[in-house]
């Protein structure tokens, strides 16, 4: 497995372009949460204790970016809204995240692995 890095570097004719893994995570999170049927992102079991205790806000909780040679792998954990077909929502999330990350960053996405961590229920009309 590749060693986790803080930035992904791409050589350019004028120098290097460095993209933060956090930026890629936020792009993936935004794409995933826009899919109908996604109730939110779920924190990974590997999250640090400060995040679990609410000590730090992380827009990309539940997203892990892994750099593999010339490509990246995205792993994300989501919550599905009750009443939606899990497989359909997960496939739409894969497609949305793949497209968003590749189009925004110009990097090659090897895979998008969706982990469904739970179901959430929305209540309407309550305050």
Order of helices and strands: EEHEHEEHE
What is the name of the CATH topology? Alpha-Beta Plaits
User: Compute the gyration radius: what is it?
Assistant: 16 Å
Shape: elongated
Unreliable sequence segments: 47-57
Number of domains: 1
Terminal CA distance: 47 Å
The largest β sheet comes out as: 4 strands, mixed
Structural class: alpha+beta
* Name of the top-level CATH class: Alpha Beta
> What share of the residues lie within helices?
25-40%
Find the count of extended strands (DSSP E, 2+ residues): 6
The CATH H-level superfamily is Cation efflux protein, cytoplasmic domain
Classify the beta-strand content into a percent band.
35-45%
**Number of continuous helical runs:** 3
Question: From the 3D coordinates, which CATH architecture would you assign?
Answer: 2-Layer Sandwich
Mean pLDDT: 83
Structure description:
By secondary structure, the chain is of the alpha+beta class. It has one domain: Alpha-Beta Plaits, CATH 3.30.70. The chain is 29% helix and 36% strand. The chain is built from three helices and six strands. It has helices at residues 21-33, 49-52, 86-105, and strands at residues 7-12, 15-20, 38-41, 63-68, 71-81, 108-120. The strands form two sheets. Strands 3, 4, 5 and 6 form a four-stranded mixed beta sheet that branches. A two-stranded antiparallel ribbon has the order 1-2. 23% of the residues are buried.
Brief overview, please?
It is built from three helices and six strands; from the N terminus they run ββαβαββαβ. With 127 residues, the chain is of the alpha+beta class. Helix 3 links the parallel strand 5 (71-81) and strand 6.
């Amino acid at each position: 497995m590749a060693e986790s890095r803080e930035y992904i570097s791409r050589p350019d004719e004028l120098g290097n372009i460095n993209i933060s893994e956090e930026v890629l995570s936020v792009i993936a999170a935004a794409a995933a949460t826009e899919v109908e049927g996604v109730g939110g992102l779920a924190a990974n079991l590997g999250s640090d204790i400060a995040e679990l205790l609410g000590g730090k806000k992380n827009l990309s909780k539940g997203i892990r970016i892994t750099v593999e040679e010339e490509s990246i792998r995205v792993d994300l954990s989501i919550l599905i809204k009750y009443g939606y077909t899990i497989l359909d929502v997960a496939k739409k999330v894969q497609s949305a995240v793949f497209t968003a990350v590749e189009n925004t960053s110009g990097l090659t996405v090897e895979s998008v692995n969706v982990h469904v961590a739970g179901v959430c229920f929305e209540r309407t009309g309550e305050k």
